[in-house]
Amino acid sequence: MDVIRTAQDLIRFRTETGNIEEIHKCFAHITDLFDNSGALVNVFEKPGIAPVLFLRNVETEDFDVLILGHLDVVPAEDKMFEPYIKDGKMFGRGTLDMKSFAAVALSSMFHVLQNNLKLKFGVILSSDEEKGSKGTEAFMEAHPNMKAKIVLDNDVGGDILKIVSKCKNPVFVKIESTGKEAHGSTPWEGIDANENLLTVLNNIRKIYPYFSKNGPMPENTWIDTVHIAKICGGQVSNVISNYAEALLDFRLIETSSVDNLKQNLDKCMVEGVTYKISSSSVPVVMDENNPYIQDYKHFAEHILGREIEFEQIGGATDSRTFAERGSVVIMHSGTGEGMHAANEYVVVDSVEKIAEIQKKFLDKLAGK
């Protein structure tokens, strides 16, 4: 399989999250690729939930290796769905996040099949990762006994010279403030929901400081953070607001807990303001000295001809469910920039190198 050509073919499908018709076309294209290959290919579907493509070389729920990824992308102009290569970089929507590395996963599947590797191997590709991965959640709920000794996670794009060993726990919180309407000229006759909300947000900032590129920076970035994703309140300029809300995105490190976050939020509330946790996950933390991770790192360094290092990221990963089930998760991807932006690109050589690293690692696991 030509991994770059396969990536380009995938990118041409306009699989923006929610575009189910185009997602099914992309799934059908991949199914056709594996026609007569010996792969078992299924589409998991549930009403109201984005579908998930599941490929494997054997009927099992207990895998040696699984690769996780997604085929949905964020919206973009039409031209970004026509990938092109210039100066060793491939440009287009999904080049970095993450159709190039979905193509790598498919290439690894072909490698396992064509070389008859003695591995129980599979690939899981979701189609709503950009909006919360409800499809993956439903898929895992439908497969409560599914597990894998090793999970390869290529959805951490940015730098091929770094393996991610830690991901934070994303916790999303909705804060609601209620007040009493009054005319804007007589604020003493009302209770301003906006003001109360701002008081609470200010209290939260005393615990979780504000950081920005052109403002204060932490000495150590492996800390709990929060960003205020959305604020809204009020209807017209001359009426005291009787309702306001804010959406907050917390990122917690592995030594923090949701219970501790709740205790902090309780301290920040004022009369008329409440909160609820919309969703939470778990941090993914891997032992950098794990033998499988060290083997993978060795192959990567040999193929790249350079030392690579471990890093920690604030983003979440769909591999967290498998981490909870005891999998060793190896988070490594290629090099590029512009994720979700108009200039998204991936370095072509890094895609080819990731594919080579995976194949060598799989050969070693199979005793080849």
Secondary structure topology:
Elements: H1 3-11, H2 20-33, E1 40-46, E2 49-56, E3 62-70, E4 84-86, E5 89-91, H3 99-114, E6 121-126, H4 134-142, E7 147-153, E8 162-167, E9 169-178, H5 193-207, E10 225-233, E11 243-252, H6 258-268, E12 273-279, E13 284-285, H7 291-304, E14 309-313, H8 320-324, E15 328-332, E16 336-337, E17 345-347, H9 348-365
Parallel strand pairs: 3-6, 3-7, 7-15, 8-14
Antiparallel strand pairs: 1-2, 2-6, 4-5, 5-17, 8-13, 8-15, 9-11, 9-12, 10-11, 16-17
Question: Describe it for me?
Answer:
- With 368 residues, this protein is of the alpha+beta class.
- The chain has two domains: 3-167 and 284-365, Aminopeptidase (3-Layer(aba) Sandwich), CATH 3.40.630.10; 169-279, Alpha-Beta Plaits.
- The chain has nine helices and 17 strands.
- Helix 1 (3-11) packs across helix 3 and helix 3 runs parallel beside helix 9.
- The longest helix is centred in the C-terminal third of the chain and has 18 residues, at 348-365.
- 42% of the residues are buried.
